[in-house]
Amino acid sequence: MSGYLYEKDLVPQKYRILVSVRHDKLVREIASELEMPVQELRRYLIEHLDMILLENLPARAEAAGTKLSDNGEVATALGKEKYTLFIPILPVAAMDSIFRDVNERVRTGIPVAEAVAYGRAQIREALRR
């Protein structure tokens, strides 16, 4: 048998998954939360996640929303578990570093909302690398 059994380039199939109704809504919510363009987030997801994970994103996001986390206000606002365990778009080490920076800012007297905004900017930068 000559040729591949499976397609080598899965980008069109991954894109079709991400523009379906439930996935599109989720991608737009995440993009809005992280204040980044939807197309940029889609490109990142296509490049870094496999098909099975992409298909399960809405269920994973729902699980992240219903999980009662006792990590604290900063971790929840930053999406510490959401973006590492449930929707794994960021390595745990990178998120831990961002989380430490945000906590340090809060400890030094910066308001939580401002520190979390800084953390989300750091998440955006980590996704763009």
Describe this structure in words.
The chain has 129 residues and is mostly helical. The chain has one domain (11-128): Hypothetical protein MTH393 (Orthogonal Bundle), CATH 1.10.3070. The protein is 71% helix and 0% strand. The protein contains nine helices and no strands. It has helices at residues 11-18, 21-34, 38-48, 51-55, 57-66, 73-78, 82-86, 92-107, 112-128. It is elongated, with a radius of gyration of 16 Å. The mean pLDDT is 90.
Reconstruct the topology from this structure.
Elements: H1 11-18, H2 21-34, H3 38-48, H4 51-55, H5 57-66, H6 73-78, H7 82-86, H8 92-107, H9 112-128
Helix pairs in contact: 8-9
Q: What is the structure about, briefly put?
A:
The chain has 129 residues and is an all-alpha fold. The chain has helices at 11-18, 21-34, 38-48, 51-55, 57-66, 73-78, 82-86, 92-107, 112-128.
